[in-house]
Structure prediction request, 698 residues.
Amino acid sequence: MKPVDIGNLLEHPEVQRATSPISESVKGRRAFKPPVCRVFESKFTKVVPVEKFHFDIDPEAQRQLPDIINNKVQVVVGVDQPSDAEAKAYRRPRRIGIVFSGGPAPGGHNVIAGLYDAAKRANPENRIFGFLVGPDGILENEYVELSDELVDAYRNLGGFTMIKTGRTKIDTPKKMALAKETILGLALDGVVIVGGDDSNTNAAFLAQALFADKVQIIGVPKTIDGDIQVRDAHGNVLCAMSFGFHSAARAFAQAISNLSNDSSSDIKYWHFCRVMGRVASHLALEVALQTHANLTLIGEDLADYVDTQRLEKSKKEKTTDYTAYGMTLRHLSRVICESIVRRAAVGKNYGVAVIPEGILEFINEIEVFIIKLNTIIAQYNATHDKDFHTSLPLLSQKLDYLGHLVRDTPIGLAPNVWNARDDELFNDLPEFFQEGLLTERDNHGNFQFSQVPTEKVLLDLVKDYLKILRDQGKYKIGIHADYYAKILKKAGLQPEYYGPILFRDYGQSEYLLVKEGIISLRTLKNALVQGGAMDAEGTIPPAIEKIFNQSVPKFKTQSHFYGYDGRGTDPTKFDCTYTYNLGLTVFSLIANGATGQMAAIRNLEHGFEHWEPMGVPIAPLMRLEERKGRLTLVLEKSVVDVNSPAFLVVKAFRENWLAATPSSDQYRRPGPIRLHSDREEDRPITLMLNAIGQKIDG
Ligand code: FBP
Prediction:
């Protein structure tokens, strides 16, 4: 090739375009204008309280949040001809702060864009400030004033890059005082907290603390985990899903669908995919619907598990067997093995399994460890100068400390929180898992599931048990009857003669399974000799040996973690539209005097034309939960309802998607996230299914 002048090359417009950080996709996304709900086509909006929704109020929430506990659901309504006073109030200049809190979720930038556009449209003098790096930005008075340029650069783009995020919780009087100082110092009229359950909890406490100062605080339901779903006491859905869930699920599903293609092509790997979702299995459920992976575990389903055999046995013995209720790790690994063995029997020694990151929370024995360790760590921190992890950085030191608890209960810790049996069971766990269970809790006191290689824990148990099943001759690869016949005929042997000696079901099924007793060349030879097919001195015919070797499974696995990639993906059209409208809703709530409310869009589970922007009161949704070893008021998390249509559909298709039959696999290819495509799913399948049968209630 002729040498090129690098200077000329770099100046070439095509080269400049190809190497620019602003790709064509980014340009397209920035230019996309999400549709707006009908109410936002009006120049003004007002909010109307709705009396028909009721909540069961926790007395502790009543006590701690007296000024916002009686808030009602407020529906946003478009107003075309407001009175002068209404127009004046709506348009009065405002200063609004916004902060991201917790993990990123696709669509966050559009919440900002929606708020910014609505605020500037109401009054170009309105000013919006973005607090930097999460709630720390509020505590440290670090912010940036948003401009057209800054907002336009991030429209419809993933990540929380514009102002970053963090997990600090405003949970002490000192932090609350700092937050107040910043907010009042900046003379803010409103603060918007875009976050998950813990961050919306923060929003409620801030709303209470700043109520007298007339600073309005609004929350926005964000989290890819999809565990902010709000219903009233009668089950009416007010917020069907937090934003970011759809995009993350689609990103995971696309990657997992690619693995299904690989796995069913190369037919040698089982891919174990852990997908994010700290506690609830919503993401795994959606991924199952999107991909039809062979095996998807749903934590909430396991929690309901009852071992009927154990139960029967204990009934007969007139005893009570508490271990019959709930799934153990060992039992779960057996359930997985059963699926692997059944697929192998029809020649499919490969597959794709989806494991929710939070599954351990639903395994009895592990959940008990997590609760006990949370209590022990919290108690240690409360009584020592240094915290547990700083004082005892090494695993061996932590284990020693636990061992010492068995002998000597410290003051403040209930006796038997850690007993000899706990210590023994804990010491039986693999080191990496012990380490995982003892990791530092996050700022909200949550156990950090993302730091524990759950799939590895399960895989180790699965491998051990599969080895046992292989040695027992129960785990075998089925050999296609035609293939067997072809190989034998080619070698001049009669398939019908050898068939009944080698296989347990010869002539009855499409896939032939080598007899259980034939597990090695030695046992193969024995079978042939006993069947009269060869002398004890002879050698096994190579064609028979070949068939036998092909029936012996190798269990080869690949494990994957889908989390941070999906959190950072560009949003789907659904999330772009949802979040932009959430931003518009936030402004309507603030402009109409609301506080302690969470912006929400009702009827998300139905088509866009039914979407209804509203404010949902946060305080009545709060419950007492154990955090850092103490009962704390938090927004209740929503986990997968095992009676929901989405779960029942997945359950009904389980056998089908496992595809432990000679027919082909049922994998579904959801395709990549595209902003401009009619083919992209326009909302989560989970929502679509859950909406069926539900009356659209305007
Ligand atoms: P949020 O609840 O803050 O949205 O975060 C959820 C999540 O993405 C979980 O799925 C995951 O377990 C966790 O964040 C990981 O947190 P970290 O960013 O601290 O690793």
About this structure: The two ends are 69 Å apart (CA to CA). The chain has a mean pLDDT of 93.
